Amino acid sequence: MEQCVRNGEESELDYQDVEMLQSYGINLADLKKLKVAGICTVKGVQMTTRKKMANIKGLSEAKVDKIKEAVAKMSNSDFLTALVYSDKRKQVFRITTGSLELDKLCGGGIESMSITEAFGEFRTGKTQISHTLCVTAQMPGAKGYGGGKVVFIDTENTFRPDRLKDIADRFNLDHTAMLDNVLYARAYTSEHQMELIDNVAAKFHEEPGIFKLLIVDSVMALFRVDFSGRGELADRQQKLAQMLSRLQKVSEEYNVAVFITNQMTADPGATMSFQADPKKPIGGHILAHASTTRLSLRKGRGEIRIAKVYDSPDMPENEASYAITPGGIADAKEC
Ligand SMILES: Nc1ncnc2c1ncn2[C@@H]1O[C@H](COP(=O)(O)OP(=O)(O)OP(=O)(O)O)[C@@H](O)[C@H]1O
Ligand SMILES: [Mg+2]
């Protein structure tokens, strides 16, 4: 396994290039085809089904079988003991949101190797949290986290570099260096969004261990436009599932935190019941299952907002308040 030593952190990461499969008899031209399709590492091959690989131009089923066999030989066993796995989990880091209270709510910050989803009505701070994370992800943090670069995929045209500058001022960071560490892309259609996520995988591969955070603000907006009406719902959910599965894999393969935002819609069934909050996040079960941690955001007094853990494998359903300030997200008591 390759040893990556960067920013003073030392960690064993499996960024094994697919080209290593050459020594198992796979020819380079075929491996290059995998890379063009966004599969750059041996782990990436493991995470892709045979069917999907056979869809790549120039790869026959026989070739795919040979590649899969080579990967199986190389990785010996897919099983690890819980002890080894717990060591692997030690690579997981957390990025501060700018508010200690909000961090506490999510177990110390936005977690790597998983997807965190924040949903809420307009002006609840989803985009402001995204902007704050662009800056805080670059700063060294708890437990040896060294900081790193960020990718921001913007589907609503609400990314503002000037906001990043204000937030950088709060943390005394140099504007130019900070802006240089954020790769920005505007997505225009849901298909474009998917392509960008594939390209992101290639970027992460080019500079292993350098990127720490991937933001998609917002994840559903384009799907909502591109697939309208009940007739297209099944198709939308299928495409959405593919995109989320890609995001999940990218987060694990390259040990990055994935932060996505989501909108809400009125729940038509809720008016008939005594539910306190008749709104729910869009994306249905597909999104619900893909996000590891779901934060529900709502407005409080003035610039105060309240976040609630909606769904998490290891966090209790608590609440925390935070404030939107010129310097980004902060504790509510600071304003
Ligand atoms: N420079 C700033 N200083 C303080 N507060 C700001 C600043 N810029 C924006 N805000 C506040 O942030 C809030 C908007 O938050 P944000 O854009 O993150 O909402 P959102 O949840 O992304 O909404 P939408 O669903 O429309 O995308 C507004 O209440 C606004 O007052
Ligand atoms: Mg927004």
List the helices and strands and how they pair.
Layout: E1 3-6, E2 9-12, H1 28-36, H2 42-46, H3 50-54, H4 61-75, H5 82-89, E3 94-95, H6 100-105, E4 110-111, E5 114-120, H7 126-136, E6 149-154, H8 161-170, H9 175-180, E7 182-186, H10 190-206, E8 211-217, H11 221-226, H12 233-253, E9 257-262, E10 264-266, E11 279-281, H13 284-290, E12 293-299, E13 304-311, E14 319-325, E15 328-331
Parallel strand pairs: 5-9, 5-12, 6-7, 6-8, 8-9
Antiparallel strand pairs: 1-2, 3-4, 10-11, 12-13, 13-14, 14-15
Helix pairs in contact: 7-8, 10-12, 12-13
Bound molecules: adenosine-5'-triphosphate and magnesium ion.
Adenosine-5'-triphosphate binds near residues 123, 127, 324 and 326.
Describe this structure in words.
This protein is of the alpha/beta class. Helix content is 38%, strand content 22%. The strands form four sheets. Strands 7-6-8-9-5-12-13-14-15 form a nine-stranded mixed beta sheet, sandwiched between helices. A hairpin with a 7-residue loop joins strand 13 (304-311) and strand 14 (319-325). Helix 12 (233-253) runs parallel beside helix 13 (284-290). The longest helix has 21 residues, at 233-253. It is globular. It starts with a strand and ends with a strand. Residues 1-13 have low confidence and may be disordered. The structure holds adenosine-5'-triphosphate and magnesium ion (MG). Residues 126-127, 156, 158 line the site of magnesium ion.
